Amino acid sequence: MAKEVAISKRAKISQAQQYLLLAVVGTSFLLGAAIVLINYFQKMIAFNSEVIAAEDASIKKYSDVIKGIGVCKKPSGDVYTNEELEKCTPDSIDVSAIPGTLRANIINNIAANESLNSVPKEADSACINPETNKNYTYKEMNELYNKAENSEELAKASTLIRVCSALRIIPDALPASKNEEALLSSLNKIFIISDWEPSSLRPTGDSNSSTQFGTNLNSISVQLQIEANTATTIRVLNNIERSIRDFNITSAKIEWGGDNVLNIQARANAYYTSKSSLAETTTTIKPGDTK
Questions:
Q1: CA 85 distance to own-chain centroid
Q2: Do the domain assignments include residue 285?
Q3: Pairing of strands 217-229, 247-256
Q4: Share of the chain above pLDDT 70, in %
Q5: Which of 48, 64, 84 is the last residue of a domain?
Q6: pLDDT tens per residue across span 96-113
Q7: Would you say residue 284 lies in a domain?
Q8: Number of domains in the chain
Q9: If I label 169, which of 22, 81, 133, 257 is the partner at 20 to 30 A Cα–Cα?
Q10: 229: exposed, middle or buried (Cβ count in 10 Å: 0-12, 13-18, 19+)
């Protein structure tokens, strides 16, 4: 009887040990799984935090560009909300609401530049003020801009300033593309004013970039031959010098001929800028642990 009781106790102890072992194994498995999941979620949280930070940086950069150009009014916070962008209509924004922006500087400073305005205007009926029957002054154009009551009137005033103010000079003084035909046309106008017809005028086909004034500055080379009496030759050179478009003579050969003839063979550079644009970049976020 005692032997049977001992055997029964050993069996119960053995069964209890098995249950305990299974409990330990199960607990270890759950603990290991919990540790793995915790590590996984920590990495996911860290990765998503990097993604959110990159998104916030992109939104900040876009907002800074919009603020710097003056496309929209200044946001209520550091960045524009979707509601503020949806309500933004560039043609209905008064310059006084976007001080210090590129747009405001162009309208208030360049368009009103007296030196640029001193360049004679071409005949353009759109620039005639019907009340005075004379060309609009910048003050008159600015008054129209400030008194505009809707987006249509504001857009019309903006176009008037762009076409009839000092801004009209910018494309002539420094074009935004390599246009050899326009270059020759500019020179031809100078020759007409000088009452002289060239015997030789052609672009060389050479084009170079310069970093002296910025990375977007480029040059077109042109060859010119002037053979006329001294007074005519000097008149042509003076008109080239007074031209709103810069012609930089890099080399010249001067010869005196008979009957007071002055022969000049010259090579000059005219300049233009490359178009500026905003470069869109892509940022790739990868988890720190590739496993």
A1: 19
A2: no
A3: unpaired
A4: 84
A5: 84
A6: 888 889 888 888 888 888
A7: no
A8: 3
A9: 133
A10: middle
- Report CA-CA distances (Å) from 221 to 172, 197, 209: 17, 20, 12
Contact 151, 92 (CB under 8 A): yes
Considering 58, 84, 110, which residue would you say is the last residue of a domain? 84
In a domain, 208, yes or no: yes
SS3 content of the chain, % helix, strand, coil (to 5): 55, 20, 30
Residue 240 CA to residue 136 CA, distance in Å, equals 28
Residue 12 has pLDDT above 60, yes or no: no
Average pLDDT, the chain: 80
Rg of the chain over Cα atoms, rounded to whole angstroms, equals: 38
Query: What is the per-residue pLDDT across 140-173, written as a single tens digit (0 to 9) for each?
Result: 888 888 888 887 888 888 888 888 888 888 887 8
Q: Are 184 and 266 in a shared domain?
A: yes
Q: Which of 63, 97, 61 is nearest to 80 (CA)?
A: 63
Say if residues 208 and 216 touch (Cβ distance below 8 Å). Answer: no
* 184 in Cβ contact with 171 (< 8 Å): no
pLDDT at 242 over 50: yes
